[in-house]
Amino acid sequence: MILYNGQMMNNNSSLFSSNVILGTGIFETLTVYHKKAIDLNSHIDRLFLSLKFFNLHVKSSKQELISQVEYFIKHIDEKKVALRIAVIQSTKNEPADIIISANHFPYQKEDYERGFKISRSSVIRHSSNPLLYHKTTNYLLNKLELEKAQGKGFDEVIFLNEIGAITEGTRSNIFLVCNGNIYTPRTSCGLLEGVTRNKTINIAKKLGFNVIIDTIPNNFLETCDEAFLTSSLLGIMPISQIENRKLNRSTFVITPILLNEINKEASN
Question: Is the pTM of this model over 0.85?
Answer without folding.
Answer: yes
